[in-house]
Amino acid sequence: MSSAVRFQVPVPPLKPLARPSWLPAEVWPFKTMMLDVDRASIAVTEAGRGPSLIFYTGIGQFVWRDVIARLAPEFHCVTLDPPGIGLSAPVTRSEATLQHSAAAVGAVIDALDLRDFTLVAHDSGGPPSIAAVARQHQRFQGLQGLQGLRGIVGVNTFGWRPEGPAFRGMLAVIGSGITRQISLSTGVLSRVTASSFGVGRHLDAASRRAFQTGLQKSMSSFHDYLNDARSSDLYDELERAFAGPLARVPLLTIFGERNDPLGFQPMWKALYPNAVQLVIPKGNHFPMCDDPDFLADQIRSWHREIGPAQEKRP
Asked: What does the pLDDT read at residue 146?
């Protein structure tokens, strides 16, 4: 039996979310709702109309703001905070796992009844969201006339078990109790991430403050997720998905020029020889913030080229 965490169905409706004072409308101009499932309250944002794009990252939905603003006139943009991150309600340390993260993505897809959707995944949000859409895609393939996953856009992300001293060492350091305590007590990681070296290259002061506040309040869960990322049993499911239901799904990867030290782009190319791969000049770990125009333009044109999910099936 699969060890995947599954939210119970039926999924309850989304409920209004009271906007916190640190996130004014001029900084976050979208309506965000809460989805209560299986003891977790997940913050979900929708904007625009058209084909569905699901944006997901382990650090919280705020980083997608400027890309969503550019794509919402043509697409139905959906994004969510992982359990315990951003506007989502706090969770216990044992619940800050990639399996629970994947279950949250699946619950949102079910609640919004998304069909023929494209996943746009970043960083540690890659493995759980890819696992979630693989489950959905496999289910849709067995139902006549239904459309599932149209494609995957990987933005500075991975989808496999961390191996090698560099990759595993990085996760061990960031997920360690010592780093976690320093981060919680000093706020140094949230400050650096909000700077021009992180998401803040083109953000104004109010936007940087909002992002930093949301990240700092989530920092405990953020470190717990990275600790779990070293050894999650989700990777076995991903390996099967890449060889099975996801084998024919189109892939676009977009990485920052200055931030692929572990060679993730070549690893994606080995999994998907026909993948389209792009690099943002002078980009760092957050290409969606370094150059939102480029990211939005490339997603728009690639989405048009690959066509509906129904056409990609044998």
From this structure: 43
User: Residue 207 is inside which H or E element, if any?
Assistant: helix 205-217
**Could you give the CA distance from residue 207 to residue 216 in angstroms, rounded to a whole number?**
14
Give dist(CA 198, CA 230) in Å, integer.
23
Q: What is the pLDDT of residues 178-215, one digit of tens each?
A: 999 999 999 999 999 999 999 999 999 999 999 999 99
pTM of the model: 0.93
134-150 burial code (b ≥16 CB/10 A, e <16): bbbbbebbeeeeebbbb
Tell me if 136 sits within 8 A of 170, measured CB to CB: no
Strand partners, 76: 52
pLDDT digits (tens, 9 = 90+) for 268-297: 999 999 999 999 999 999 999 999 999 999
Could you give the CA distance from residue 175 to residue 169 in angstroms, rounded to a whole number? Answer: 10
| Distance between first and last Cα of the chain | 28
The CATH number of the domain covering residues in 32-162+233-312 = 3.40.50.1820
* Strand-pair category, 52-57 with 31-37: unpaired
Residue with tokens 């023929």: 116
Assess contact for 136 and 160: CB atoms under 8 A.
no
Q: What is the pLDDT of residues 127-167, one digit of tens each?
A: 999 999 999 877 665 544 446 789 999 999 999 999 999 99
Strand-pair category, 76-80 with 40-47: antiparallel
Amino acid at 240: R
State the number of CA atoms in the 13 A half-sphere of 264 facing the CB.
Answer: 28
Helix axes 234-243, 126-141, angle to 10 degrees: 50
DSSP 148: -
pLDDT of residue 242: 96
116 CB contacts (<8 Å, ≥6 apart)?
A: 51, 52, 147, 148, 150, 308, 309, 310
> Can you point out the beta strands (E) in 106-235?
117-123, 149-157
Residue with tokens 């859409």: 133
